[in-house]
Amino acid sequence: MAATAASGLAPRLLCAQNLEAGTIAPATLDAYLDILLPGSEGTPSASALGVGAELRAEIEPGSLSERLIAAGTMFLDSVGPARFADLPPAARDEIVDWLAQADYNEIPGRFYHVTRLLAVGFYYIHPEALSDLPLEPAPQPVGYPPPWGDA
User: Fold this and answer.
1) Which superkingdom, per the lineage (predicted)?
2) Of 143 and 111, which is predicted with more confidence?
């Protein structure tokens, strides 16, 4: 249902003229980023690591990136019966699924892909984001041992 609403609102809310005004809604951006990078038992969510705040701090005021993300958060807050952050998790998931399938050359798809790329970069610079992953440290700068062993 929310995706249907999202598809109907996209042309009206996310047109080029809406890139000219608006501000990024921090709570909306955090809720959205938590859909992309949710926490688990041993790993914090994007909002717990402050990814949204870091992303906003790195974006130049008035830049196209800021205007795109502002239009995206405005869309997210307009698509449901309540602000995006106040929607049930299933509704938020459905809306984000719709964004993920949107055309990259249109504003909804561009918003999704740009914010996902930025969020993943900001998220994984935090050691806490890797703490629950079964990774062994890479042997650099020494390099990998030869696969043939000492034979």
Assistant:
1) Bacteria
2) 111
